[in-house]
Amino acid sequence: MRSQSSAEPGTAPSSDERRAAAGSHERVAPKPHERVAPKPHERVAPKPLGPDSLTWRYFGGWRGMIFGPWAGSMQNMHPGLGAGVEEHSDFFDERWERLYRSLYPIYGVVFDGPRAAETAAKVRGYHNTIKGVDKKGRRYHALDPETFYWAHATFFYSLVVSIEWFDGPLTLEDKHRLFDEHVQWYRLYGMPMHPVPESWEAFLEYWDHMCRNVLEDNKAARDVLDMWRIGRPPYLWWFPEPLWRIIRPPVIAGFLWLTIGLYDPPVRDLLGYRWSRPEATLHALIGRAIGLGGRLVPWRYRYHPRARAGWDRAFGRIPAAGLLETPARNLPPVDRRDSPMHYSPRVTRRNRPSVSP
Fold first, then answer.
1. pTM for this structure?
2. What highest taxon heads this organism's lineage (predicted)?
3. In sequence order, what are the residues at sequence separation of 6 or more whose Cβ sits closer than 8 angstroms to the Cβ of residue 348?
4. Which residues of 60-88 are buried (b: 16+ CB within 10 A; e: fewer)?
5. I want to staple 6 with a disulfide (CB 3.0 to 4.6 A). Which of 2, 192, 279, 303 is the partner?
6. pLDDT at position 30, please?
């Protein structure tokens, strides 16, 4: 990968290039199993992120939806997480609804201000009962510290990758700042901190180790990438179903191609995909074009409603007491709404903000 100073104008660096640029400044980090001493961030009290953070600026945007298949498949390639999804999740029975409602608590851990820790505790609670033995005889639990942190790591790294794909290279200072904020964000879950790398440099080593040595090509990951029978997105409810069936193949093929381009080379190799230099160049140009196009959207409306509500509370546009919950159209099927695994708030059809007592 080329360094930031040598990146071509208008293109975002590849994953290999990002690691090489970071590596020119970074020391070799210890392997995950070699870390023994407590890290400084293990002794810091949890504190929610606020509007002064870089994470607030970049996280929670609609453009990040493009990274959905990448994030979902990367998470599910973790053996423990993939087994939990395969054996406990109904995601593929209500794909759009599950995705759209899940974004509310996920974004809430960042944007809910003083109530972010409460949101994080609820998210953690949804995973309490997800455990078992996988097909290879390995025990798994969604709250295993290594497994739970991997899911968080994919959200954090997708943020870094998306910024560089849409907007161009980040400075090393901003990468360190985003890393520190992701640690602060993760502490809200109340999970053990020992899986968390001690620095941005160590995180890159951790990520590479996971991609090369831990992730697996499994059914849960392949199911995420199997979008060929997916229905119309909710925002295209007005689009005729017969026409959607006609345009779906090229649309899905395009999304799959974009996803393949976002993978690190070891992950592409694991999944059996090939990637050429011309494809990489085109992929980078598309990312920058999307980023430039997104600037035409009014600033507040670039954000998901839960994130936008966080900004609105921070600047006094709405009362501090309320949290915006998912609309009723995204709720789980009626027979699953009492399941401890599901986020299923009591909302009206008009999606009024909820106010806790």
1. 0.84
2. Bacteria
3. 328
4. bbebbebbbbbbbbbbbbbbbbbbbbbeb
5. 2
6. 39
